[in-house]
Amino acid sequence: MSQSNYNYVDELAQLNKDILAKNPADILQFCSNYFLARLEDQRKQLWNQQQRASAAGITLFPRHSVPRQSNSHAFPAFKTPFGDNDPHSEDPHHDKHTEDEGPGAPAASVPTPGLFRGTFGAPASSLARSVDPSDKSESDTIAPLGAKISKLPAHFNANRRTSVSAETLNPNKFLGDWKPPVRNLTSEQLSRLNSSVAKNFLFGQLDDEELNTVIHALEEKRLPQNTEIIKQGDEGDFFYVIEKGEVDFYVNGDKVNTSGPGSSFGELALMYNSFRAATAVATTDCVLWALDRLTFRRILLEGTAKKRAMYEVFFKDVPVLASLSAYEKSKLADALVSKTFQPGTPVVVEGDVGENFYFIESGTAEVSKEGEGVVSHLAKGDYFGELALLNDSPRKATVTASSVLKVATLGKSGFQRLLGPVVEVLKRQDPTHQ
Ligand SMILES: Nc1ncnc2c1ncn2[C@@H]1O[C@@H]2COP(=O)(O)O[C@H]2[C@H]1O
């Protein structure tokens, strides 16, 4: 069953519950009111989502088409779903037709009163998802690179399910009698999963039962080099973990990232019920493991979203991370593990082999060196422990909690993978580096 069908079934199930609870006299009027209220709610969520995304530096709905870049991937341009009421617009009457809509395409907004008149004002037929039999965005077939990418329907974003909070805050309510898929994994597949994929940072938050459910729901995908795994602008269907190979990511034609074994991608559209934020292309032959949207939302959504939100606040107090993009910060948040040390407890000891890097979330610590005593004091937003990881050398100093100390730790592989862009700055500023 396609993802749209799931959404449709969820929606009808909820409507049915409301009808049974309220037993309305005028069923059609009740249904009409129900869907209008749902639509309004959805648009408000989308609005909030856009605000949060832009605060984090991500543009969900660029106003203008983005010219094709020199690489070979076609990227759709997006229209704001807020029509003429887009507060981000410098010119509210500009850009009613983009080149991507084609000359005959209807205007994105039909003026009607009300905050979201752009989308509410559109004719009913344009609010329904445009049905294009060639649109395989829901299927788990993966388009080979170079396959023709069809243009987006004129009302592309207006028709997306974009609720963040309703399902996010109470996912169980919306998932009904959800049962995770159980794949018939061979013992060879299970052992590969346990030795690599299960170590993905996002799975670190799961208890044994949850991890087991996730592992048995994973589906192996072997993809040749140059396969387009995800297309920017599509609806989210799967979350992926890389077992082997490399994947490049493009946003509006610009390469923004590369990921390798142990990394995951494709979570954003599932978390925010939004379209795919980037195009993902296999740059080598790849072995991936795909987790379906509902299992992701049911088991991984809440913990991931909470952790990202929590560290998003903390990262504002860590100047050295300022140069990381919003997405790089999210990935860093996934990998961090909080630990608390009582006053007087050493966290790293001079001469020891180093395995972890630390940010101070709260509390204080002091740095001391053999023969020199205390050489510096550390507090919230400071970090320590990178030298041993960078140089494969013993710890150069001892760091001891001087009050209850909460740290966010990162292991060696996460440190190399996620803090690469700021390593030079860390090197220069590490307080244990004398
Ligand atoms: N800079 C980036 N911005 C957005 N998404 C990215 C970026 N780099 C990698 N990605 C991944 O690309 C995926 C595309 O699908 P999603 O939007 O579901 O989730 C996205 C992320 O997992």
TrEMBL record:
Residues 69-141 are annotated as: Disordered. CDD domains: CAP_ED, DD_R_ScPKA-like. GO terms for molecular function: cAMP binding; cAMP-dependent protein kinase inhibitor activity; identical protein binding; protein kinase A catalytic subunit binding. The keyword Phosphoprotein applies. Residues 202-317, 320-434 form the Cyclic nucleotide-binding domain. SMART domains: cNMP (SM00100), RIIa (SM00394). 3',5'-cyclic AMP 2 binds at E386, R395. GO terms for biological process: adenylate cyclase-activating G protein-coupled receptor signaling pathway; cellular response to glucose starvation; cellular response to nitrogen starvation; negative regulation of Ras protein signal transduction; positive regulation of protein export from nucleus; positive regulation of transcription by RNA polymerase II; protein localization to bud neck; regulation of cytoplasmic mRNA processing body assembly. Keywords: cAMP, cAMP-binding, Nucleotide-binding, Phosphoprotein, Repeat. Residues 85-100 have a biased composition (Basic and acidic residues). Tetramer, composed of 2 regulatory (R) and 2 catalytic (C) subunits. In the presence of cAMP it dissociates into 2 active monomeric C subunits and an R dimer. Belongs to the cAMP-dependent kinase regulatory chain family. This is cAMP-dependent protein kinase regulatory subunit. It comes from Babjeviella inositovora NRRL Y-12698.
